[in-house]
Amino acid sequence: MRQRPFQQVDVFTAVPYLGNPLAVVLDGVGLSTEAMQAFTNWTNLSECTFVLPPSAQGAAAGADYRVRIFCPGRELPFAGHPTLGTCHAWLAAGGVPRAEGAVVQECGVGLVKIKRHRGDTTEPTLAFAAPPLIKSGPLDEADVALIARGLGVARSDIVAHAWCDNGPNWRGVMLKSAEQVLALQPDGAVLAGLDVGVVGAQSDSNSTDFEVRAFFLGNQGLAEDPVTGSLNAALAQWLIGTGMAPARYVAAQGTALGRAGRVHIERDDSGTIWVGGASVTCLHGFVKL
């Protein structure tokens, strides 16, 4: 074992402890997959990442670093809040990108570009380019009926639905309102094995445009993610692509869990959808691994 630099970062918030936490081991060199998975399980967080030098192929394509992303029980090819949180930690630890104003991350789905810009906070706000969807299009009607039953809503309350698979195997459904999204009390026995993202439009008086919730199978059954970058990326591709959302909007997530996550979505002139938000370091030091 040796000491390795470590940060715990709160993502999609500028206020500590109101976003989605992430453990970041900034030196994963020499660690086995089993060691990475065991440490991830020990953190008891939704995800943990391990920073590594880029592969030869990744470096040749412009990657600044490589990251392996784990959640309890498995490795993920891509996840949104770990992408932003890892980049934030890497920059805070002195990482210098090869290209000015942008960071290129190598991960299981390939290269992901992350841009930096100054917002209302002292730290740069980061946004990643939404990766291509692996699977899109409407869900099977049997899945929609099952999700409605698992969410405890009528089938007619689901006004739209689509595959939102960009690594994590999200199934997306839209309800009639944000209020209905917040009132959900899902049945884990019915939704077992499904990763379900739920979105509803806010009222005109709200400061955000949509409310999002994400449900998935956790160690103790059905779990809810506080703020989910991968889901919001896929939802944006679906909603903007079908005209159900404007090219620029803000989604709230985590409200039902006492969090205040804010996910900023923007489609640029080239058609790239950027998924961004603030991050803040809550803990930093070393871990023995």
Description of the molecule:
With 289 residues, the protein is of the alpha+beta class. The chain has 2 domains: 3-129 and 277-288, Diaminopimelate Epimerase, Chain A, domain 1 (Roll), CATH 3.10.310; 141-271, Diaminopimelate Epimerase, Chain A, domain 1. The chain is built from 7 helices and 17 strands. It has a 17-stranded mixed β-sheet that branches. A hairpin with an 8-residue loop joins β11 (195-201) and β12 (210-218). The longest helix has 13 residues, at 80-92. The N and C termini lie close together (5 Å).
Helical coverage, percent range: 10-25%
CATH superfamily of the largest domain: Diaminopimelate Epimerase, Chain A, domain 1
Q: Which shape, going by the Cα principal axes? A: globular
N-to-C terminal Cα separation, in Å? 5 Å
State the CATH class of the largest domain. Alpha Beta
- Number of E strands: 17
Assign the structural class, choosing from mainly alpha, mainly beta, alpha/beta, alpha+beta, or little secondary structure: alpha+beta
Order of helices and strands: EEHEHEEHEEEHEEHHEEEHEEEE
Tell me the Rg in angstroms.
18 Å
CATH level-two architecture of the largest domain = Roll
Count every helix, treating DSSP H or I runs of 4 or more residues as helices.
Answer: 7
> DSSP strand (E) fraction?
35-45%
Tell me the count of domains.
Answer: 2
Query: pLDDT average, as an integer?
Result: 94
Briefly note the CATH topology name of the largest domain.
Diaminopimelate Epimerase, Chain A, domain 1
Largest sheet: 17 strands, mixed
User: Regions with pLDDT < 50 over 5+ consecutive residues?
Assistant: none
